């Protein structure tokens, strides 16, 4: 898929005299996501997003208190999308949660949407756990990971043993994907990198 650059997004934006209630937020999120996935997280700015949807940048402050809040909203959308990909992976594997389909879904997402993935994991740590705009979306992925790594003899709930198992697995898959993104993991292309990462995780 060919992605438009930020300049093209702004140049092609229709001028709008007014929006229906809620349209500004939805349009801003869509434009911001396009900018991030086309040019990376550093391309994101209030003025660029406002120009892309044809409004004054001050209109965005009615929906996001600052750029950080906009970034959190994009990260939340990313984690929602990741949760959906993981759930689809479970269903494609016969409906049974397990490490294999979770790893495949996670690596697919990280390698196919690298700019969004970088934005999602560039958020300050405490926001993942407590910020109302982001924490519920992160929790969706955490719950799916808990299902994937639960064992028959685990105690009920998200026990410390299960938590540690999930954290270790998360560190492994995230670390390998990050090494690929940074060029430290050498592979012919993203497909070869995925095959190599999944082979390591299966050991």
Give the SSE map.
Blueprint: H1 6-11, H2 23-39, H3 46-53, H4 67-92, H5 99-112, H6 114-120, H7 125-130, H8 135-149, H9 160-181, H10 190-202
Short account of what is shown:
It contains ten helices and no strands. The chain is an all-alpha fold.
Task: Give an overview in words.
The chain is built from ten helices and no strands. With 203 residues, the protein is mainly alpha-helical. The longest helix is centred in the middle third of the chain and has 26 residues, at 67-92.
Number of helices: 10
- Biggest sheet features: none
- Bin the strand percentage: under 5%
**Poorly predicted ranges (pLDDT <50, ≥5 residues)?**
1-21
Number of strands: 0
- Mean model confidence by pLDDT: 88
Keywords:
203 residues; mainly alpha; 10 helices; 66% helix; disordered N terminus
């Amino acid at each position: 898929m060919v992605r438009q650059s930020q300049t093209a997004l702004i140049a092609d934006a229709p001028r709008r005299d007014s929006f229906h209630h809620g349209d500004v937020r939805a349009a801003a999120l869509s434009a911001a996501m396009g900018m991030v996935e086309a040019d990376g997280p550093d391309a994101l700015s209030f003025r660029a997003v406002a120009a892309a949807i044809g409004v004054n940048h001050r209109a965005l402050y009615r929906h996001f208190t600052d750029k950080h809040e906009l970034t959190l909203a994009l990260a939340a959308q990313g984690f929602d999308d990741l949760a959906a990909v993981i759930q689809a992976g479970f269903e494609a594997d016969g409906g049974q949660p397990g490490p294999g389909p979770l790893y495949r879904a996670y690596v697919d997402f990280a390698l196919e949407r690298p700019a969004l993935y970088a934005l999602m994991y560039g958020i300050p740590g405490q926001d993942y756990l407590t910020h109302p705009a982001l924490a519920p979306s992160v929790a969706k992925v955490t719950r799916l990971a808990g299902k994937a790594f639960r064992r028959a003899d685990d105690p009920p709930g998200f026990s410390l043993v299960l938590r540690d198992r999930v954290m270790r697995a998360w560190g492994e898959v995230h670390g390998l994907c990050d090494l690929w993104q940074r060029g430290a993991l050498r592979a012919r292309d993203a497909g070869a990198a995925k095959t190599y990462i999944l082979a390591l995780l299966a050991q």
